[in-house]
Amino acid sequence: MEESTVVVIVGAGPSGLATSDCSASLWRKRSYDRLGLHLAKSFCSLPLKPHSPETPIFMSKETFIAYIDSYVSELDIMPKYYHCIELSFFYEERNKWVVEAKNLVSGDMEKYYAQFLVVAIGENNEAFFAKLPGLESFGGETLHSSEYKCGEAYCGKDVLVVGCGNYGMEICNDLTDYEAWPTMVVRSPPLYKTNCILSGRMVESGMLMLKWLPMSFVDFFISLAAKFTYGDLSKYGIIRPRKDPFSLKVDSERTPVIDGGSIEKIKSKKIKVVPAILNIRGNQVLFANGTEGYFDVIIFATGYRSVAHKWLKDYCYLLNDNGMPRNEYPNHWKGENGIYCAGLTRGGLPGLSSDVIVITNDICKILLKNK
Questions:
Q1: pTM (2 decimals)?
Q2: Which partner for 163 in 104, 126, 168, 190 could form a disulfide, CB atoms 3.0-4.6 Å apart?
Q3: Per residue in 214-231, pLDDT tens?
Q4: Omega of the bond prior to 256 within 30 degrees of 0, cis?
């Protein structure tokens, strides 16, 4: 089957809404039960549909999924679910983008020709596993955070969580609620420092202040609030970055860790913090500070990698070899020959919404010009 259209959008999460069997598949199928949005609802709406006044300021997973479902329904979006993108390339003779997709229901191959191609698969495509020396000898269970659902299955077990970002912190927090014994790996400086630790309210306040005040002032104020709230965390193995939270986000795309109760549990030693892993020998793990521990489970909260460059043959028009935007922010969203990307700047839902608006306006502008 062949079909010509104006725009092909690849992605069925908030970035796009067509490569999965449902909308928001990451939230439905690859997230833990207690997951909630770390940003206030005012920063987590998609274009044309603000959240209702009744929506909680910080939404649960279920509330956000319901919002996505209503977004699809109210805007009459009809994604082509159960399709797998096999290949996409720019066909110079016709000046069109070609997208080849397999219909997973019928088994047929489908080919689409489009003037514009929007890569909207987001950043969280392929689970990334950190390489650990001796991991092949580990005798317990290993899994990625995308497979983790609830701490109930790990009651009474010693669990090593590799990663100290939002997923790592939240998983450790959840494990303690089910009487598991989590240990979180924070690689030692100067190789690595944890992201800034903030509360949800601090992030909300900071983002509101950034609309009117310079970043340096906002950084100073929010960092002061964080120091007052959490104190010096270095004694617990958490080293604060040299840069303040919003500057760090702009310069290195590292998102602040939003504390949901983990810091108090770290201070009370319900969550143990250790430095880098030196070696794994069976169920024994050796750490850089000379300590060791025995674990039943290792959970990799090590994030994801973009895979767009694997099926997008001519990705060089838009992406680098890591599947991320080739152009620097704020010009990251547009490539050459009518290709765009949304949600690939680690800017979360606010960055995604911004991408969607500028992409839509640019496409409409080109279409009106060519009329």
A1: 0.85
A2: 168
A3: 999 999 999 999 999 999
A4: no
